[in-house]
Every structure is written in C-alpha cells, then in structure tokens.
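tool_call predict_complex ligand=calcium ion
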Amino acid sequence: MVSSALPGLVALVALATSAASDAVKVKWLESPPEYNNGVTFGLPWARGQYPANRTTFTASSANDDPVQLQSWITAYWPDDSIKWTGHAIAGSETVYDSYKITPSGPGNATLSNLRRQTKANEITVTDSSDTLLVDTGKLVVAFPKAGNALISSIKTASGKTIGKNGRLILKSQSGIAEEGQSGIEYNDFVSKISNLTISKDSTTRALITVQGIHHLDGNSSNAHVDWLPFTVRFYLYANSEAIRTVHTIIYDGHAKSDFISGLGIKFDVPLTDEELYNRHVRIAGVDGGLLHEAVQGLTGLRRDPGKDVRSAQFNGTVLPDKSTWDTKVANGLQYIPAWNDYRLTQLSSDGFNLKKRTKVGQSWVKIPGGTRAGGLAYLGGATVGGLAVGLRDFWKKYPTSLDIANAATDEGSITLWLYSPSAEPLDVRPYHDGLGEDTYAKQLAALEVTYEDFEDGYNTPYGIGRTNEIFIYGFDSTPSADKLSALTKQSNTPPVLIAEPEYLHSTKAIGINWNTPNSTSGSAAVATIETHLNFLIDFYEKQIEQRRFYGFWDYGDIQHSYDADRHTWRYDIGGYAWDNSELSPDLFFWTYFLRTGRADVYRLAEAQVRHGAEVDSYHLGNFTGLGTRHGVQHWGDSAKQVRISTPVYRKSFYYLSGGDERTGDLIHAVLEVEKAYVLVDARRKVRKPGVVYVPDPKALYLNFGTDWAGLASAYLLEWERRGPRWEEARDKLVKTAETYPLLKNAFVTGEALYNSQTGAWSPPPTDPGNNGNITISHLSGVFGVLETIDDLIHHYADIPKPFVDAWIEYCYYYGATPEEQQARYGVAFADRSLKQGHSRLTAYAALKTGNATLAARAWNEFLTDSSLDELSPDDPWKTERIGGSDVLVEIDEAPWISTNAAALYGLSAIENLAFVGGPK
Amino acid sequence: MVSSALPGLVALVALATSAASDAVKVKWLESPPEYNNGVTFGLPWARGQYPANRTTFTASSANDDPVQLQSWITAYWPDDSIKWTGHAIAGSETVYDSYKITPSGPGNATLSNLRRQTKANEITVTDSSDTLLVDTGKLVVAFPKAGNALISSIKTASGKTIGKNGRLILKSQSGIAEEGQSGIEYNDFVSKISNLTISKDSTTRALITVQGIHHLDGNSSNAHVDWLPFTVRFYLYANSEAIRTVHTIIYDGHAKSDFISGLGIKFDVPLTDEELYNRHVRIAGVDGGLLHEAVQGLTGLRRDPGKDVRSAQFNGTVLPDKSTWDTKVANGLQYIPAWNDYRLTQLSSDGFNLKKRTKVGQSWVKIPGGTRAGGLAYLGGATVGGLAVGLRDFWKKYPTSLDIANAATDEGSITLWLYSPSAEPLDVRPYHDGLGEDTYAKQLAALEVTYEDFEDGYNTPYGIGRTNEIFIYGFDSTPSADKLSALTKQSNTPPVLIAEPEYLHSTKAIGINWNTPNSTSGSAAVATIETHLNFLIDFYEKQIEQRRFYGFWDYGDIQHSYDADRHTWRYDIGGYAWDNSELSPDLFFWTYFLRTGRADVYRLAEAQVRHGAEVDSYHLGNFTGLGTRHGVQHWGDSAKQVRISTPVYRKSFYYLSGGDERTGDLIHAVLEVEKAYVLVDARRKVRKPGVVYVPDPKALYLNFGTDWAGLASAYLLEWERRGPRWEEARDKLVKTAETYPLLKNAFVTGEALYNSQTGAWSPPPTDPGNNGNITISHLSGVFGVLETIDDLIHHYADIPKPFVDAWIEYCYYYGATPEEQQARYGVAFADRSLKQGHSRLTAYAALKTGNATLAARAWNEFLTDSSLDELSPDDPWKTERIGGSDVLVEIDEAPWISTNAAALYGLSAIENLAFVGGPK
Ligand SMILES: [Ca+2]
Ligand SMILES: [Ca+2]
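tool_result ok
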C-alpha cells in the first residue's frame, strides 16, 4: 500500500474527504491492470465551475489513499472556466479499482501536502547541451538532441545500462524484382533527429517529442534524399519502468519508386559479463503465452545439470554456481549451441512463424509457431537486466516482426518491425492505370458504374500517415514470465481511466447529443432501438474479425457496402470499399461509447481515430488537412475533403485521452485546409458549365456541410484548446455566425463564398445579388455538421440568434413536406434522401423549438424511411451464416446493412433519444 | 446407375455372384467421395490360392453392378501364387459404397464380358515420335518426350484446349541478401525432360513417368549447371477428368550457395474469345470455402446489370447477352477493372493472405484471407472451359502459394508453388558451425551432452528428396463451386479403397505380428492396453497439430523427446528433435491401422512414409539408400544408417496403395546401401581401438539389426515384387539363412562380416576363429528386425531351420535371466535395456516354441519394465493442459512420453497380443 509507509496522513485524508462532493470518479475501462506504469486520462467540467487560473487537482483512491497526480488544462469555456483537463497518475505498486480526482483552489492544503509527500516520486529532468536525461525513479533515459539515436541509453535505478542506441530504421527499394525490373536499389535508413522538446511540467509525466527524418545509413553507396519524416513521442511516468512510445511516420516518397520494405525501431542491449546460460529470450505468443529460452539452454540435455539449474533457467533467475552442476554438463558447455538470433514473423493476421539460429551463415531452426502473437520481445540477463519492446495490435497490423539479434555476443539487440522486412514490400501505387479516364466526363461516367471518383494524380499516398504505439520496458533482472505476459496484454490494451457516462453527460462539455440508455423511458420502442444499436456495434466488431479488416494501413477502418451476390464487402469496387468515415460511423461509435462506457466500443472507436485521422487524411503536400473519400485504396479517390478529416470524429478520443498529443496535432492541422481549398476545388467536376471559379482565399466556394463544418470543428477545437491560432479561429467562427444568416436562404443556400481570412460569408457567384440560391444536398447534413454546430452553439453562449435560427430552420425544412418547402422557399427541395439520417436534424429542431409535433415527425422519419441508406424496424436485425463453397471463409452476413445506413441509424437513434426522448 | 443402360447383364451378374465366395470387399477409407476420378488400391492374397499366370480379376458393386477394373500383380509368393495385387478402378459417375474384387481363371466369362461392356471407357494411347497422347474419354493429354513442358496440352472431350505448356519451375539464389552478401545471383529454371515412360497396360489407368532436371531458363545471363532432378508421375484413369500427379525432387545443390526460393508447376490456360466477364477465378479457402470471382466483376456495382447477370457470374455460367443488361453497365464496361493476377500465400500453417491486381506495375489489392487454405486454384471461362490445380496438404507443407496470372489476356496461367517465392529462401545449411568438434573424441563428448552425433560433411542435405501430390482437373466449362469444393477436399484426402482388417489378416501376406482388437480375449488387462494404444495414437495426432509439425520438409515427422522444463519437444537439442523413425513409430502406426482400419491412423502413417522415405533418406551421393539418425535437422546427424530408411516402414503403404510407384522406387533404392557400406562405416567412431576395418564389399562389418535388417527388408521386397534384382536378392537371403547360423553365437554375435556380393556371413575380425563373440545392443532388436525376419520366415517357407532357431534363441535370451545367459553363452549380457520393447521378441519365441511360461515372461517384461524408454501401467495416461505464460501457445503435454517409449510400447503391445494373446 502506498499509504502504509507514509507518516502524517490522517489529516491529509480528512482534507481529501472534505472535498469529496466535488470529486470525480474514474475507473479502469477494462479490469484493473496488473501493473500501473502511469496513465493519462481526461475529464470534462461544466461551464463556469472551475476557474482556469485558480483550480488545482488532487487524486486519491476510493478510500482516500493519496495518489500522485499531474494535471493540465486541455480545453476552456469562453468564460475562462475549465472545460477539459488532462491528468497523469504516476506509476505505482498499488493499483486501485478506481480513483477520485478532486478540483480545489490554489491554497488548498490537500495539494501541498500531496506535493510534499509524493515529491520523492517525482521525475527529474537534467538538461545538458546535447542530452535530456529523464529519471523516473525506476529508469534513467537519455534523449540526445541530435544524431541518429532517439534514446542513447536506458539505465535501471541500480545503474545497469539495459538499452542503448534506440534508433528508427527503414529499409526501402526502388522497384519490385518480381516485376522484372533490374537495377533496383536497396537502401537502409536510420533516424536523424531535427528537433526535440520536453513537456513543460514533467513531474509525474514527462513527454519527450522527437522529430526527424529517415536518413541514408552511412554505409550506403547509393544516393537517396532523406525521407519519411517522423514524430516520436516518449511518455515517461514517475516510478515507472515503462516508456510509452507513439511513433508516427508520414509517407512522402514516390509511390512508384519508394517501396518501404522494412520499418522499425531497434535497441542494443548490453550483455557483457552475463554468462550465456543466464541470458534470456522471451517472446510473446498467443493469449498471454511466452517463449522461454536461454541463449544457451541447459534443459532437455542428455545429462541433467541439476533440477535447480533447469528451473532457474526456465524462470529466468540466476543459475546456481557452475561448480554445483553435474560435471558432464559443466564440462560440455562448449558443445551446447548458443542461439544468437531469434525472429518472429507475423505475415498474416492469422499465423506467425518463429525461428532462431546460432549465427549468420547457418540455417535457422524453426520453433513451433501459432496464430496471433502478442508482439513483445525481451532480451536480457538474470544479473545484467534487460529490455522488452512491445507493439500494440501487433498481429492486427501485420506484416510485423520481431528480431532479437546477437544475443550470444557482448551486445545484443531487439528490433521491432512495424513493417516486416520478411514481407513483400509495401506497395502504395494506384491499383489501376486510370482505365482511360482522362476527362471529367469519363471520370463521371466511371463514377456511375463503380462509384469511384478517379482523377490522375489525386490517387496519391503522398502525405498520409500512420501512428503506432510501442512500449519499452526496462528491468534490473529478467522479470517473471507472468509479468511479461501481463505487460504484453497491457501493451495491446493500454490501461485507460475513464469517468462514468453520467458524469460525462452532466458536464455538457462533450455534446448534448447523447444520453445514457437508462435516462430514456423504457418503452418497448426504445428497448427495440437499444437492441438494434447493440446489434450494429456487435456486427461491426464481428465483421472486422471475420473480414480481416487488419493490416499495416487497414486496421481501424471498416468497409462501405456489401455485395450480396458474392457474400463479401465490396473491397474491390471503386467507391464501395474502405469506408473512410463516410457518413460518420466514427461519431456513432464514439457517442455509443459515451452513453454506455463499454470497453469494446472504446477500442473499436479508438482504432477508427488512429486510422481515419492518419491514413485517410493528408499531412503533407497540397492536400494537407483534407481527407479522402471512400475507395479501394484509402487514398485513392480524387475527392479530397475535410468531411473525412473533420476533427469532430477525433474529439471524444482527444479529450478522453487527456489530450493525446498526436491527435492534437492532427486536429490542429485541419486548419490548413484553408490553404488546401485554394489548391483543390472540391466541386471542379460537377460545377455547372458557365460558372467560373478561381479559388481565392478571400472567396472560397464552399459547401457548409462538407467543406465548412470540418473546418469549423477545427476552429472550435482550436478555440477550446486555446491553441496557437485560437483567437483567429474564434474570430472566424464569430464572423461566420454573423455573416452566414445574411445569405438570403442561409443554410439552404448550400454553397457560398467563404473568406478564409475573416470567416465572413458572401453570396455564391451564381447569385451575386443574394436573391436566394437553393442548393440542397443530402451530404451536407451527414458529416458531423449538426454535432459541430451544436457544439459551437453550446460553447459560444453569445452566438448571434439569427445564426442559430437559420440552423434550426435548415433542420426543420430538410425533412418538411414539399408544400412547406414551397411555401417557405418558393420551391420544393429536389434532394430529400437520407431521411432517417436527417431525422436527428428534425429532432434537434424539436428540441430547440420545444415543438412536440416535430418530435413525432423526427421519429416518423426515423422509423418509416424506406429510401436507400436507412435501416427499418422491418429489417431482419440478425445475421445469416454463409459457409460451404459460397465463400472463401465462413462468415456472418447482413446484406441489408450498408455502413452508410448503420452510421446514420446509429447516430440518429442516439441523438433522437437525447433530443426528444423515445418515440411516443 | 452404371448397369441400368446396359443389355445382357443378367447372365453376367449371375456369373459374378457365383464367384462371390472368393470375392474380396473393399470400401472407402473415409466416407465415399463425391467424385470418382479413378482410384488405385492393393489387395493381399493367401499363399497358394491364385496362380500368378492364370488368375484374372473383375470388380463389381456390392449388388453386382459391373465396374471397370485393371489389375496387376505387386508381389508373389515363392510358389508363384499371387501375394499382392494392385487394382485400378476407372472414373465413374456412380460412386459405390464398396466394391467386390473377384479373382478367377483366364477363361472366365465374367472377365471377357466385362472387358466387352467396358471397352468404350478404355483409355487410348497414341504414341508418336515426339509425343504420347493419352485420351481418358474426358481429357486428352499430350506428353512430349523432350523439351521443357511435361504436358504440352490438355483438351476436353469436346476439343477445347484448357491447359498448355505444363512445366516445372524453380527459382534459386546463390546467397542471402539479409546476411550482407553482395553479388547474389538469382536464377530461374525450367524443367528439361530426359526420359519418359508409360505403363505397359494402360486401359483403365495410364501412368506416365517423366524424369528430368531443372535447367536454366533461356533468358538468363547467369550460368548454373542443371540441378534438382525430378521424377513426375502422371496417373490418368479412364473416364476421368483428373490427373493425379506425384512430383518428386532430389536436392543436389550446394547448401551454402543453392537456395531454393521458389519451386512450382505452371500451366498456361487459353482464354481467347472468352469475354472478361465470363472468365472465372476460383481459389480454395477454409473448410471447403471458395473465392468466387470473375475477371471483370459485374456484382456490387453502382448500377445493376440485372439479377440473371449477377447470379450467372457468381455461379460461373454464361452471362445473358449483353444486349439484355442494364445499359449503364453495358456501356460502362471499360470503367470496370479487369483483375489480371491473383495470389494466395500460405506462409505459415495458420494464416494465408490473398490479393489481386489489375496488372504488373499497379498495386495489389488485398482480399480478406483466413487460416488454412485448401490449396486449389481454378482459372477458366464459362464457354472455353478451364483448369484447376490443387496441392495435397497445401497448408501443412507451408510456405506454399498459388498464382493466377494474365487472366485478363488471351492466355492466363496457374502456378502452384510447392515452395512459395514469397517466403524467405529455403535454407538447408547446417544449423551450427561444428562447435569445434573436429575429432571423434570431441564428437563423442558432444554426443554425451546434446545427444547429437556430429561430423563435418555428414550434415548434408545432398541427396534428400521430397514428394508432393498434385491434382490437375480439366473442365469443359467452369464447374460449380460445390464441385470444386469437393475436389479440393479430395485433393487433400485422396480417396482410398481398402479391405477389411479381418481379410488383410487372414491372408498372412502382411505379417502375423498383429491381430484385430476383437480377436483378443476381452479381459480388463487387454482393454486397458487397447485404451492406452488409442491414447498414444490420439496423442501424436494432437501433438502434430499443437506443435505445428508442419512445413515443406517437416510434415510427416514427429519429434523424439520432450523437455518437461520448457513444456516443449526438444526441437533444438541435438539428437532429441526430429524423430526420423527412431525405434519404429512408423511400424506402430501402420500395424495399428492394419488392426483397426481407422482412417485417421492411415493418414498419420501415410504422412510418415512420405516424409521418412524422402527427407530422412538419401537418394543420391555416397549415402544413397541410407537414412539419417534423429536430430535438429532431418539430415543433420552423422549416423547414416539403413535402420532409418528400412523398407519395412514403407511396406504396408506400398502394398495397400496398390504399389505406389514412388515408394516402390524408394524401396528398391535401399539395395544401394550395399555400396554405401563401402563408403560409410557406421561404427567408425565407436569401434574398439586396434580393430582395423577397411570396408570391402565382400566383407562388410555389419550389425544384424541396424545394418542388415534394413537391407534384408529391401531384399525381401525385391524378391516378393520380382523386381529387376529379385533373384539376386533372393539368393542373398538364402545364403544369409544358410551362413548366419554358422556364426558360433549367431545373432548374439551382433556384428560380423557380410559379403554383399553373395549374402554370406563370416566371423568378425575380432573373432576370426569363430570362437564366439558376444555383442549385445539394445538397438539391434528395435528397428524392424523382428518384423523383417518373421516376414522372411513366412515368405521363405523352406528357410533353413538353424536360421529360424538362431533367431528364436536370440529372442529368448535377450530378456532371459543373467543366469540363463551365463549358462548358455558363458557371460551375462551387459545391455538389457528396452525391455518393454523387446518383450515382443520374448512373445515371438513363445509363439514359435509354444512355451506358455515364455508368454507370461513376455507380458511381465512388457508390464513391469521400469527402465528408460518404456511406458508403465502406472503412468498417468492422460495429458495435462499447459497455458498462460508457461508456454508460447497453449498445449497438452505428457512429459512421461518419449517417442522411443511410445513406439516400443505400441508395437510390443500389438505384437504381444498377436503372438501370445492378452496377459493372463
Ligand atoms: Ca480508410
Ligand atoms: Ca525427419
């Protein structure tokens, strides 16, 4: 127990208890982890409650044992009260089931007492000219400010160096031998640091951010520019033996000549002075399984060295002195091979191979493998200590591999391959040659057939990214297998602390568009909807597994439409393949998580964030900040739009995670679409002939739903977070709120001119006199615009009423009768599809106007829509097992589900329930 | 029904029935196959029953429908009566549950009537100067007599050419890039035919045997000698659309510079005049699953071409005329990608990947994969027909792959990769550098520690082989998915016809060393033994799966000893890893099959034959005919002995399979050890100092059990089969039977001089005066010597009594009391281990002498042995589940089992029961 050894805690506990009324409880998302190596989480706070400049936070267990905490603000209400906080808890021997976080004023004794009593556990940072030294109390980690190694050394508290020269490595080739190319160059690159920063407050948690690029390895005779920029974040916690590492790369190569053939991180592990038989290799297998090997094994021999010798080796403890062994073994050691290298390759999501060899130049020996490896490797010694490196979602992100090398020499190494060099090279070229689609007309004709929106040059991976989570653990001696097994589990499902749904909801800091299932009347109709929501979540979780939505780029995405004839998702058909967040399944998953707190849903939604924000979005080049429409390749479609990259999809994760810094970067980067809009005209292929449009930062021709809403979400988050451009972002939102209602038909105008330097809107070029354009698109309302505008309205309490009214009017009229539309706008809307998906707009209007008839209309739209992309109460709401020769692999299918429909059903159901309660 | 359309069958049926008393029933090993594409099987016959020169055979169904049959003799009793026959049944639409095989004289009306009525279904062979043309009635297959293509064309009965240019392909490289070597040469080879033969009688079954070597492809600028000789056998049956193909290669490269990086068979598939949307790709998935794709898919599009179009494409039938389609699809065809290439890779036993691409130079697109693929691929068209190629045990022999290429061009192709070019190259170098073991003394010292018997130069794969079974199917149009699924199943478990155990036993043609479980009194003691036998079989079946005893070289082997500390078989410890048939598990499995008829046991034992006879034996070079002792690599140990390659392990499979020709070759090749004994002195490291031995064909210093018994088995089989050297083989056995008893102590002499030119034995150099050497080794009696000598005694009815008596004496005295040994030989035997394993020798002596006391001694030895390598009634006889962090993958273990012990227990239990009945 933390408290037991500490004097003078009675008063402290009493103080903590006295503040309990304000305390917020957080608990583990899953069951409590076996080890707490420190954790970060986020909490929302209601408007006006806690002034940003004079609130501090303390943490304790449920029964008031104090817990070391570091806190920071991740979002502000406009009144300077705290909207969101991030918190870090230090590593600890005791892991509580839940924690209480208590906000209090600056003079509060609780805090200073806590500070005092936990000071011994604080991180110390030593900043020298070339190195940052971070001491967690368990590990001392040296971060060089330049050069190739991101980590130059890791020492244990006792002073043993257990890791060295931690660097990124990249292998690439200029062509594919199998395609008959000759003169292919094979290159090896190593990380080159360009920038290093450390978090300001690094008492409980230190964050070291290293940026750089992959640079040709010194030995190479080839020439290749530096490429594949990286950002690697190292999170260290007080009293922790773990380094959480968030590894991000951006692809900036040439798809046809820069094939990644290996991408990894490598550490050297000093082993001098450790006997070969005291050196241990541990590699994670299936379901917590672990390979137990010694570099020189003494079990299973013809002669028994002694039971204690064998069991010590299996358990990873120091062997009894050699003089105590059976002499036949002691004298025959030179005839027992030492295993220098180990390699685990996970080249498919379903099977891994494992092998070892005595040295280069000799054959590998197969070790029986299995299905899905845990993705962690340990190398070390019973006396010299050792290092473990693990990759989250190792098998889900295949092809991956793990190398342990030179274990029989003075300096071994561990390489974690995020992309395995044993796999065929990563190929990001277009999947077809353009099919002759060299004009907009042909591209539109093709769109009619395959739903693919092709345009040469737009199908580029230049600028997409991928982020991986790596865990580095340092040990003073070889840890127990159970411990490594537990850490493997934690590397794959990193412990998350989270508040209860009821608390999250009560703060109104994360939307009013959801409520908890318990808070809606338990009518049969509501119960059916809840059953259906649960069905959809389960369905996608199962589809991910059955359809193997796994892989380096792919994990975290789902697919768009189903081919009932072939019993397969349309993985190969133009715009029907990877979903790229089309119509907001991300929002469905996140809001479903918020209302239920279900761990599986958090993990489902988290993977979407890590995919969509990285792979489906651009981080470099002309498209920076934009996403890509759904397609066979994540980046293949020529529609580059912010509707895919919109921060509204990442917001919940960002705040709940305590402000995940990579996600923060991605959210901020969406502001860059102001520039992208000058370079990319989203409606270039479909604009009416005669309308001349030359993009101008002061007059961008944008759709409010598919173009502005994502940018607005970025503005709003910048404002909340008080990011570097927050005042500018706020001012633009204010200007929009003032100017948008001036458009004659406001949101019904659909597309108008946006001044990206001020936020002001003006009439479209087709209606310079502002006589009232009408451009209705079913797409405008289904990419988070409602959720963004409502967030804005709630955040910006003084928002001009005409803006709110205009929005409510749009919400009302989209689903109104043609007669009503005619009466209001002089014309009935042509496009009224996605009625179920838009029912939440109706419900929102009902909420805002208090109109009960409108609430009924919303549910009617939700329940009786029979157009495309809806789910009806009459649908089967079950899957069917398809097997035998009909399919490659037996699966469960629901051909009546499209992801468009599922996302809209899910989100509309949740929001309708929240806005107007259940159907009457 | 076959009979219904045929006139005049009444008399025929009557005749067939009249001979029913002699008819032998054969039934399918597993449930009857869905398709009968012809099958071969073997039947034994009792001595003196059917004269070889005037017996013919007919076949019918159980209710006497005639069945087309071809028969041949595979073994003769010395009195010229038939000992074993092989039979081939033609392909047929009707598949009966069982068949009756009736032997009869040459004038028998049954035969001639059958001949007459089935003549229409006979194979026709057209032999021209450069090609053999074989017409099965369903397929016309052209086999060139020279060049690269083993099959130049396959046509359907209607004249469509559905396969062309079937050739073998090989890729190799001279080094491993990853090891830092530069200047690596990459080579492509293609088959070059050196010899082609066809079976003499080819009416119902034609066997074309093609021999050759892999020759550098014409385009290469490198230089490499021809290498990797092959023998490929094509089995064609009347009325069959399948070509069973048995593909054998012998490794004759240099392990350090000839790395196989791809090994396969490739067919071109003409597709001219087939619309892209009528071309079909089918690839076998998991458990009968099948990928259904068209080269140009019309399902799942934005616009529906029409339900009939979609369903025809899924089902592989001709699409309705394009004029009937929705015009949006018909006019947009150019925008629907055509998929030129497909690739399935099974790089581990547990997971496969699948992908396709539109063309070279474009990215592959992932198709969701799965666990274990069926290993069959089809390419063809609804109107032009197509070809399917399947590999038996595809996933069990990973890394394998399937390529379909150029499907969108006029000529597609299917490549079946027996070794996938997507895997890391095949590495057959030694796994260690010799560990300094440069003298016999050091090698023997190492043997004491790791049980590995190392010697530089002996750890060579030069001359080992591997045989794969491939199935080629030709179709007039794309077949149904169900049919391809059924054929995939049949390619993996090729249908086997087999007689009942009772019949097999009654003929005494396959040993008297087993009986059926029912024939031994049902005492509790016997029931326990039966339970234990069943336990051991189940245990090994489960270990093969759980320990992944799979892979290109490995499938078909099991491992030798267990490491209870690490909960793993000792895969990495010298002589404890791959079992290489040590102490005859093969015989245990086969005799257990014979007595039970269990299909799973047949498959288990069959895989052992295909492994042991190929990978653990040499087929080229100095070691030809010898096997290799157990070790980390199958070929790694320096003990090259016939005890591993002995034909006694292959005999059951050879005869039951109707004389599998590859196995026949391997059996015959063991005769070559006469030469190998001149080159390899098995006891060179352990011979007493002072004994000078220079191998001489006329005076080979051999142990009767580990050296001669295997050769004797080869002689006996050559004699039975009347192979090319049968009279020589017979004469040598006769000479041995005459001369061996002249050794003063006969079998107790242990080692003596063998004249390999005559079969005569003379005293060992240590006892030139024949005063009576005594050399007892526990190994002499446990490599099939009892089974071989008993077969010889039974076959060679006139065998000299002194030889038989000498053998019975050895059987008696090995387990006799020291006092008895002392009384008889003047000294008690030093080595009396493997008592349980030798109890069957005691039981054999009991049988032969009728001594009931001896029978009791046998059971006593069996049940009370407590030395190493035995299993006791007190053992647990259950497995324990080991999971969690103790093991890489959860497994069931039985650390009390070694394969030595299991093999000896199994074989002794079965033989003791057969020789003396159950324990009293
Ligand atoms: Ca995507
Ligand atoms: Ca073997």
